[in-house]
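Backbone-to-sequence.
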């Protein structure tokens, strides 16, 4: 018969002469809404920084995997699950949390806007989307985390298919180009962009067309491997 130790039993097995820091995970979740790159924040319902906005996240259980913790905290505090998640960086300044010595392993996540249904829970009073150029004052060192997450996302657009994680099930090339322009905050040449995207061989035509206003109908595409982020060079 196999027995599984509880978190308290695991912790009680070991005694060390050195103090141990606590570990948390924090998650920067991006989406594109209203033609803007937006970030998910939760309204803190408990000290410290009660009443301020922060990234979703929380403490790692003693027997818990890091990514499992990030996914659990994200779902508990916002109701979001099943989205692309990637480890970002470890933040460990001694004074980053007034409660105790806390090290945060951070993640960033991307999701299409058509899959969003926020539901604040756990110790979060509310959850909402904020444009990156209109952020409220943030708890802890979360502004630093967000800045790094945005920088990593923009850089990764050039050598991976990570931007495809923003896309709905079907889309046009113009819609895909708009995503790149929003994240990079610059205009891209239409012809060069389409040539580059099609050469990646990561999307395929559905055989359908979509009309927008008086423009010619546009071909509709879908991802060949929607669950994967490919490195392209």
């Amino acid at each position: 018969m196999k027995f599984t130790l509880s978190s308290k039993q695991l912790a009680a097995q070991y005694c060390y002469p050195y103090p141990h820091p606590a570990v948390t995970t924090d998650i920067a979740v991006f989406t594109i809404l209203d033609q803007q790159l937006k970030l998910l924040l939760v309204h803190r319902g408990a000290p410290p920084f009660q009443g301020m906005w922060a990234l979703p996240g929380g403490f790692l259980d003693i027997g818990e995997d890091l990514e499992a913790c990030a996914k659990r905290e994200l779902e508990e505090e916002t109701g979001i699950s099943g989205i692309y998640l990637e480890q970002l960086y470890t933040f460990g300044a001694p004074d980053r949390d007034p409660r105790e010595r806390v090290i945060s392993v951070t993640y960033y996540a991307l999701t299409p806007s058509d899959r969003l249904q926020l539901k604040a829970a756990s110790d979060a009073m509310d959850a909402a989307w904020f444009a990156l150029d209109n952020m409220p004052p943030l708890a802890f060192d979360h502004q630093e985390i967000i800045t790094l997450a945005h920088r990593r996302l923009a850089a990764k657009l050039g050598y991976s298919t990570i931007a495809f994680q923003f896309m709905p099930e079907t889309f046009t090339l113009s819609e895909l180009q708009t995503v790149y322009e929003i994240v990079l905050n610059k205009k891209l040449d239409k012809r060069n962009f389409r040539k580059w995207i099609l050469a990646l061989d990561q999307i395929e035509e559905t055989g359908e067309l979509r009309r927008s206003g008086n423009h010619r109908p546009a071909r509709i595409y879908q991802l060949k491997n929607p669950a994967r982020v490919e490195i392209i060079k």
